[in-house]
């Protein structure tokens, strides 16, 4: 057995990994994803994928999306040795990690411009090259990171968050995810993932930094144009939200396994919601809204289906039949 190949930055799989990590699945071990995926292809000949645990089902969906997005990859993996499979995974992982690192570095500075009050600076000042004063250590970033449902202006809440007495888990979503940073406990979908801060960060990463303050146009540029991207993906929303949350935090190094920022739990918790078929109506409306912000001429930016149209009636009837079928299954 020869020496392990080094992951070359010029390999097309590295470039593919950059975009795949941003738009399909960001936080995973790609060599393991490929190794497990190949093994699972054999297993699902005898065991339906639905019988696997939820985490493995998601991993396999990501694996299949990776195969679909890169022609010839399945044959390369099937014909390759274990070493070759690991090498391919390392190339894709190198791309995903490289893009994540570049985006983290860009947003670290840019985020300060977007959260600054109009016409004035941040008080006390926040440094572009150091994050130690961010997070709950600063009133502005603390107010944005405060978990939805808690009141940052309550002195006890603020003190508990600043002292660390109140730990914030990744599935406790910060209020900056909401439009105008307003959370309605009676309607938690209202405004979710529609904040100006997220739109700015999304454009900065996927179109171009210069597009942030402009109205969306027909032309695409940056990462989106390079990869033929013409609509917003669920995973890209979760990715940008994770990057913004990290940029606002006081943590200096982005790590999947960092329990302080709990970025992996946060990312997965957003995907859990956005991939839930029971939430399809809200998710469809959310993606349509996003495509209007970023890709307004795309067919994905279409208006919602008219309430009284034939298509709307067909969908309502299908949903009613599905619900009736589910009720019959439960009662039988």
Characterise the protein shown here.
The structure is a single chain. The chain has 13 helices and no strands. It has helices at residues 12-23, 30-43, 54-69, 73-79, 82-115, 139-145, 155-163, 196-206, 222-226, 234-248, 263-274, 280-294, 310-331. By secondary structure, the chain is an all-alpha fold. The N and C termini lie far apart (59 Å).
Radius of gyration: 22 Å
Quickly give the structural class.
mainly alpha
Number of strands: 0
Distance between the ends: 59 Å
In DSSP terms (H or I, runs of 4 or more residues), the helix count works out at: 13
Spell the H/E element sequence: HHHHHHHHHHHHH
Helix content: 40-55%
Keywords, separated by commas or semicolons:
332 residues
Short structural description:
The protein has 332 residues and is mostly helical.
Secondary-structure map with pairings?
Elements (H helix, E strand, L loop, with lengths): L11 H12 L6 H14 L10 H16 L3 H7 L2 H34 L23 H7 L9 H9 L32 H11 L15 H5 L7 H15 L14 H12 L5 H15 L15 H22 L1
């Amino acid at each position: 057995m020869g020496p392990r190949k080094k992951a070359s930055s010029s390999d097309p799989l590295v470039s593919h990994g950059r975009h795949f990590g941003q738009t399909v699945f960001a936080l995973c071990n790609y060599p393991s994803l490929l190794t497990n995926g190949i093994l699972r292809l054999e297993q699902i000949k005898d065991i339906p994928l639905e019988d696997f645990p939820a985490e493995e089902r998601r991993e396999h969906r990501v694996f299949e999306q990776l195969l679909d997005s890169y022609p010839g990859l399945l044959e390369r993996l099937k014909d390759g040795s274990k070493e070759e499979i690991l090498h391919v995974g390392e190339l894709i992982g190198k791309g995903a990690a490289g893009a994540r690192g570049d985006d983290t570095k860009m947003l670290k500075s840019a985020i300060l411009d977007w959260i600054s009050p109009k016409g004035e600076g941040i008080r006390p000042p926040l440094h572009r090259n150091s994050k130690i004063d961010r997070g709950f250590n600063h009133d502005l970033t603390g107010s944005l990171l405060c978990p939805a449902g808690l009141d940052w202006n309550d002195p006890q809440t603020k003190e508990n968050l600043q002292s660390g007495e109140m730990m914030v888990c990744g599935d406790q979503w910060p209020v900056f995810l909401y439009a105008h940073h307003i959370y309605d406990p009676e309607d938690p979908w209202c405004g979710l993932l529609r904040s100006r801060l997220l739109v700015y960060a999304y454009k900065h990463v996927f179109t171009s930094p210069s597009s942030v303050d402009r109205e969306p146009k027909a032309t695409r540029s940056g990462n989106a144009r390079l990869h033929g991207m013409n609509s917003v993906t669920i995973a890209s929303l979760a990715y940008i939200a994770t990057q913004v949350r990290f940029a606002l935090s006081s943590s200096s190094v982005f790590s999947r396994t960092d329990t302080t920022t709990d970025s992996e739990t946060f990312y997965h918790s957003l995907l859990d919601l956005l991939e839930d078929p029971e939430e399809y109506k809200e998710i469809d409306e959310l993606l349509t809204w996003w495509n209007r912000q970023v890709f307004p001429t795309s067919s994905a930016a279409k208006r919602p289906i008219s309430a009284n149209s034939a298509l709307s009636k067909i969908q309502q009837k299908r949903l009613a039949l599905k619900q009736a079928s589910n009720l019959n299954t439960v009662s039988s």
